Amino acid sequence: MPEQSPENHVIDFRAAEHLLAARDARGAVKLLDSVIAAHPENTAARLLRARAFFLSAQLRPAELEFQVVLEREPDNAYAHFALGRTLERSGRSAEALRHFRLAAALDPKPDYLQAARFPDPA
């Protein structure tokens, strides 16, 4: 298989976004695998792949990808929230609550506050 150009990786990333929006998580993962292989530092691609893993109930790969994102961006509230959802779905509620609370502390969105079990300030 010939090596893909950077333009093809951008096209694959955008196509993966569309596939995920259409709820074709496995198709999105397949496209993102080549993007991440070529650009392992691409946090946006990793976050998108983590979301696709979560949507397709591949919880351990989702957890690992969210952790990579958080190693690079520890203040990413969405990644904390999504990791919390992943852990919660894996039956690890205590670990999930920690990430929900970090998400809520970083960005007090109602969903994050509710998951963190903080009172809504409104």
Question: What does this protein structure show overall?
Answer:
The chain has 122 residues and is an all-alpha fold. It has two domains: 1-58, no CATH class; 74-122, no CATH class. Helix content is 75%, strand content 0%. The protein has helices at residues 6-21, 25-38, 43-55, 59-72, 77-89, 93-106, 110-116. α3 runs antiparallel to α4, α4 (59-72) runs antiparallel to α5 and α6 runs antiparallel to α7. It is elongated and about 50 Å long. The mean pLDDT is 92.
Give the helix proportion (percent range). over 70%
What would you report as the Rg, rounded to the nearest angstrom? Answer: 15 Å
SSE string: HHHHHHH
Structural domains: how many:
2
**Alpha-beta content class:** mainly alpha
Could you give the distance between the termini? 56 Å
Largest sheet: none
The shape, in one word, is elongated
- Determine the strand fraction and express it as a percent band: under 5%
- Count the strands? 0
Mean pLDDT: 92
What topology emerges from the helices and strands here?
Elements lengths: L5 H16 L3 H14 L4 H13 L3 H14 L4 H13 L3 H14 L3 H7 L6
Helix pairs in contact: 1-2, 1-3, 2-3, 3-4, 4-5, 5-6, 6-7
Pfam families: TPR_19 (PF14559), TPR_2 (PF07719)
Protein name: Tetratricopeptide repeat-containing protein
Keywords: Repeat, TPR repeat
